[in-house]
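Hello,

Our lab assistant flagged a job as stuck in the queue for most of the afternoon. It eventually completed. Since we weren't sure the result was trustworthy after the delay, we are filing this so someone can double-check. Below is the sequence as submitted and the structure that was eventually returned. Let us know if re-running is recommended.
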Amino acid sequence: MQTLIDADDRLLLLAHGDGIQSCRTEDCPDILYTYDYIQQTNWNDDTCDIMGNSREDRGFFLMNHWMNNDASDLPSPTNAAEFNTYESLRKRYERCKDDGADGDGKRVPNIIAVDFWDVGDVLDFVRDVNEGNV
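-- returned structure --
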């Protein structure tokens, strides 16, 4: 942490659960409440529907991109092999981006969450997004 401070770099710590509550004032603790700053998609599907009731725009848009095992509702390496392909990630990313153009509250994801980041093409896809190639 001191290295970040010395380099004048910034680090955002976001969390939810375990008693952490919304706090949008300057009196907030050092750990920010996730859902004050992040709007997210559903998981277990490939839509860009926004999870929850709030349509209020937030600074970050999280694309939850995974499909749990049907029987156990737990992460599935088999599903990750299908969901984490470059084409699957690209299609959903583009769907979110296209849906945002018509003003329905959706927009380009700037955070992508997956299960099994080392399965499939996740790192290649994220690199291409960051370099502006998608």
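-- support follow-up --
The delay was a queue issue, not a problem with the job. The result is valid. Strands lie at 14-15, 32-33, 38-40, 60-64, 111-113. The two ends are 33 Å apart (CA to CA).
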